[in-house]
Model the fold of this input.
Amino acid sequence: MSNLDRQATPSVCGGRGFVVAEPVRELLTPRRVPLGESTEVRRLLPNLGRRMVGAWAFVDHYGPDDIADEPGMQVPPHPHMGLQTVSWLHDGEVLHRDSLGSLQTVRPRELGLMTSGRAISHSEESPKPHARFLHGAQLWVALPDEHRNVEPHFQHHTDLPAVTAPGLTATVILGELDGAASPGTAYTPIVGADLTLTEGAEARLPLDPDFEYAVLSMSGEAEVDGVPVLPGSMLYLGCGRAELPLRALSGAGLMLLGGEPFEEEIVMFWNFIARSGEEIVQARNDWEKGSRFGEVHGYDGARLPAPSLPTTPLKPRGRVR
Done:
């Protein structure tokens, strides 16, 4: 998924200086951003106060939207660099096309994982015909310096491992949780998991004290470490936790995001993650010239133009503003 904000501003992220080393309960509120013709997303990362959770650098939550009489998701071809995109659905389908020639429909609870490496472009759209409802999350993972120029590739996994407890199913999307490991390729110590809780369930999810964590609420009503979280909000939890108390006030869907704090400082602008402003400028110029990022075939429409660069130099700084 692209950042379609035409007033795109750079995000300076990473570095361990702003990692909260102890458990906290910091509720993040989303910013509403239009996505294409008929979809609006709630953007949780980057946030006004917090830019990253581990290597997770971008989180959009959308839906559930009734798109029975709408085109649904229509994101034209656009570039990515220095990151992985994670597509995760609770309802609906998304048709992925990319400049490698991949053509894949991603369905609920299936992992669509695209590693951009040095350069890739892709489009995303609701198929024709499509399901009535569209509900999901789109997330980006920053690639560490030693892997950020890997060859681009796309993975689609339909059989993901799960950790279970009474009233709780935790499907491991990326990384590892309580000994269950996702088949998706990860380049940093990380975890992403989809949590399904039945009404009235109470559980304690095992965590790695060296990771920092956040929980995104997808649906229903739940308490995370005693804090109520409503759909479209995200609770940042800091580090130093061996377990996480969960309680469902209704049937609820959550996403657990965590990882080892990302040590490197990065610059994120539009759909690019880099280490310097000069790299961002070069990537934008390459996209505008039609070089480096390849071509997406089969999408019915023009590709996205890049937004204008800011007038001030782009420099990497810390994890929070």
